[in-house]
Amino acid sequence: MTPIRGILLDIDGVLQVGGKPVPGASGTLDTLRARKIPFRCLSNTTRKCRAAIAATLRDMGLFVPESHIVTPAAAAAALLAERGQKRCLLLTTGDAVRDFSAEGIIDTRDNPDAVVIGDAGDVFTYASMNRAFRAVLDGAAFIALEKDRYWMDSDGLSLSAGPFVRGIEYAAGREAELVGKPSPAFFARALETLGTAPEETLMVGDDVVTDIGGAHRAGMRGFLVRTGKFRKEQAVAAVPAPDRIIESIAALPDFV
């Protein structure tokens, strides 16, 4: 089997859960650096820009440079700028808009070139969803930053963007273009920044569908952790199955 020369680490559920670092996460990052194994940290969160994510991790004692973080918002902003679709209806929340502004993307309700949906939390209302629905019907490009079903918040499992994206897809009769996990384009972007080939790269995540399934389709191996949103029944039924299930990120150095 090809040796592991690079690692992709999910952030939410792997490095931290509910705003607290997973025990042993800092030590694992230190071990990877000491062994000169390059890594990148992936987040499907669409509520924070990369700079804010790096700052949040730093406050937890997890030191990850902004350049080592890959997010759907940054990927989508670059894609929209390349296409010249700079007038967008952004159905998001938090400071993720900063990654769009950095690429010259303007948030507008007036004849947008594209509708971009992320995890908007309480911004998801009948009015905001109907506005996005009408823009998609009128021909705006339709982009989903992520399609996760749920995530582990500090007070328990919470709906993510996926159910809302699916709602507009159903109503408008159009499928959204996915730019976050588990899209091949997202993993390809992460691999490009990492500088390793898929077959020599390991993905470590807590979602057997988004993280592990997406990694396998991209040609990588996938380790599932028992932290975050891990559910035993889903792991057992998953096709493809994880290459390995480990207790937490703290156990990773034993296998690389």
Short description:
The protein is of the alpha/beta class and 256 residues long. It contains 9 helices and 15 strands.
Overview of the structural elements:
The chain folds into 2 domains: 6-44 and 181-248, Rossmann fold (3-Layer(aba) Sandwich); 72-178, Rossmann fold. It starts with 5 loop residues before the first strand and ends in a 10-residue tail after the last strand. The protein has helices at residues 25-34, 50-59, 72-83, 97-101, 126-137, 162-172, 184-194, 208-217, 232-237; strands at 6-10, 16-17, 20-21, 39-42, 69-70, 87-91, 106-107, 114-117, 141-144, 150-153, 156-159, 177-178, 201-205, 221-225, 244-246. Strand 2 (16-17) and strand 3 (20-21) form a beta hairpin. The strands form 4 sheets. It has a 6-stranded parallel sheet with strand order 5-4-1-13-14-15. Strands 7-6-8-9-12 form a 5-stranded parallel sheet. It is α/β, with parallel strands linked by helices. It is built from 9 helices and 15 strands. 34% of the residues lie in helices and 21% in strands.
Characterize the largest beta sheet: strand count, sense, and whether it forms a barrel: 6 strands, parallel
Using the CA coordinates, give the radius of gyration: 18 Å
What is the count of DSSP helices, taking H or I runs of 4+ residues?
9
**First-residue to last-residue Cα separation:** 12 Å
Can you give keywords for this protein?
Rossmann fold, 9 helices, five-stranded parallel β-sheet, 256 residues, 21% strand
